Amino acid sequence: MNIKSTLLGCCLTASMLLMGTARAETEMLDQVVAIVEDDVVMASELRQRLKQVRETLTSRGVELPPEDVLIRETLDRLILENIQLQKGQRVGVRISDSQLNSAMQRVAAQNGLSLDQFRAALEEQGQSYQAMREQIRREMIIQRVQAGNVNQRIEISEQEADNFLATEEGQKLTQPEYQILHALLAVSPSAPADEISRAETYANKVLAEIRAGSPFETAVSAPGPYAFSGGNLGWRKLDDLPSLFSDVAPALAKGDTELVRSDSGFHLINMADRRGGENMLVSQTRVRHILVKPSEIMTDEQALELVTELKARIEGGEDFADLAREYSDDIGSAQEGGDLGWTSPGQMVPEFEKAMGDTPVGEISSPVRSQFGWHILEVLERRDEDMTATATRNKAMNYLHQRKYDEELDAWLRQIRDEAFVDIK
């Protein structure tokens, strides 16, 4: 069984990971091939990686480079990985078993398997599941070390984002995308008028069936006097669509179908889906709260009793903000009278968010338990906020950040390699 791969880190392809761990020949003595800071690279590691690289390149039909080049580049890769792993060890980067299990489950799911099936498939191929777990753990450590060091080197100003959005590249990035299904009933422009008329009548009949609820693919593939050709164009931005479609697409809502005539014949254009380009109205809530945390000197029951008492005092006329300043264990909001400002969906933990949604404006919620302790909250206001401009800017910022990340990562890797003590034997 061949298992398709997924990339978890920046230093090895997962297809290399899936090759498993090659064992050094017993008759060959292991030896140090490079000293890297406080660690070493062994000959067995180099042989193992060389085997993986050769198998990977061969499976992709790539011609192998000269042996001396392959050895030098593979050793350089191992040295660079070793440097990053040591950096991670020095700052305490750890990957817990639960995090590693989640990563393994994602690998299995991307191969269409459960974790148990994935393990069995690896063993069936003679691969080591434990070796793969450890390799992925290394990859995850390296990824965190890279992110921690590279992200702090990146700064994107508001002006830089505005300048990018004004460019053709920026405008294309934020264009809406369309997924269009297309069916063509081909008719020559030189065909007799009665034949063109019959074809148009049939195309309109199929269009009526689709608009009446028949699935697009079913309607255009049903037996009839004419056959349609075409298919799914996939996700495309407006500029990437042929002019025939770009003229129609913006006016189509999701699920709409339109009939268009061209020199090729009659086209049924169906908007299977669309994303982006719409105004993003987000329901926001302005809320304040009082948090009481259980502790060594206050049990969970006592914390609940206190917030229940505070709720009664507020409803009896005492000021919410004054009580929040005196009793709330949320240091960040206590000095603001418990005010958390405007919050959008997903910002708060689920229990708090549900209580916030269930509480009418101007009322105090019943005590609610979250991972942080016991809360009471008051909903001050609600509004629908247009977040379109914010979403567009965030998309541009993320794009620019990723572009700079790749550049800064290359520079940082060169820097740490130059600064490290490396003695190749």
Automatic annotation (TrEMBL):
<protein>
    <recommendedName>
        <fullName>Chaperone SurA</fullName>
        <ecNumber>5.2.1.8</ecNumber>
    </recommendedName>
</protein>
<feature type="domain" description="PpiC">
    <location>
        <begin position="175"/>
        <end position="273"/>
    </location>
</feature>
<dbReference type="GO" id="GO:0006457">
    <property type="term" value="P:protein folding"/>
</dbReference>
<dbReference type="InterPro" id="IPR050280">
    <property type="entry name" value="OMP_Chaperone_SurA"/>
</dbReference>
<dbReference type="GO" id="GO:0042277">
    <property type="term" value="F:peptide binding"/>
</dbReference>
<dbReference type="GO" id="GO:0043165">
    <property type="term" value="P:Gram-negative-bacterium-type cell outer membrane assembly"/>
</dbReference>
<keyword id="KW-0697">Rotamase</keyword>
<dbReference type="Pfam" id="PF00639">
    <property type="entry name" value="Rotamase"/>
</dbReference>
<dbReference type="Pfam" id="PF09312">
    <property type="entry name" value="SurA_N"/>
</dbReference>
<dbReference type="InterPro" id="IPR023034">
    <property type="entry name" value="PPIase_SurA"/>
</dbReference>
<dbReference type="GO" id="GO:0003755">
    <property type="term" value="F:peptidyl-prolyl cis-trans isomerase activity"/>
</dbReference>
<keyword id="KW-0732">Signal</keyword>
<feature type="domain" description="PpiC">
    <location>
        <begin position="282"/>
        <end position="381"/>
    </location>
</feature>
<dbReference type="GO" id="GO:0030288">
    <property type="term" value="C:outer membrane-bounded periplasmic space"/>
</dbReference>
<dbReference type="InterPro" id="IPR046357">
    <property type="entry name" value="PPIase_dom_sf"/>
</dbReference>
<keyword id="KW-0413">Isomerase</keyword>
<keyword id="KW-0574">Periplasm</keyword>
<dbReference type="InterPro" id="IPR015391">
    <property type="entry name" value="SurA_N"/>
</dbReference>
<feature type="signal peptide">
    <location>
        <begin position="1"/>
        <end position="24"/>
    </location>
</feature>
<keyword id="KW-0677">Repeat</keyword>
<comment type="function">
    <text>Chaperone involved in the correct folding and assembly of outer membrane proteins. Recognizes specific patterns of aromatic residues and the orientation of their side chains, which are found more frequently in integral outer membrane proteins. May act in both early periplasmic and late outer membrane-associated steps of protein maturation.</text>
</comment>
<keyword id="KW-0143">Chaperone</keyword>
<dbReference type="Pfam" id="PF13616">
    <property type="entry name" value="Rotamase_3"/>
</dbReference>
<dbReference type="InterPro" id="IPR023058">
    <property type="entry name" value="PPIase_PpiC_CS"/>
</dbReference>
<dbReference type="InterPro" id="IPR027304">
    <property type="entry name" value="Trigger_fact/SurA_dom_sf"/>
</dbReference>
<dbReference type="GO" id="GO:0050821">
    <property type="term" value="P:protein stabilization"/>
</dbReference>
<dbReference type="GO" id="GO:0051082">
    <property type="term" value="F:unfolded protein binding"/>
</dbReference>
<dbReference type="InterPro" id="IPR000297">
    <property type="entry name" value="PPIase_PpiC"/>
</dbReference>
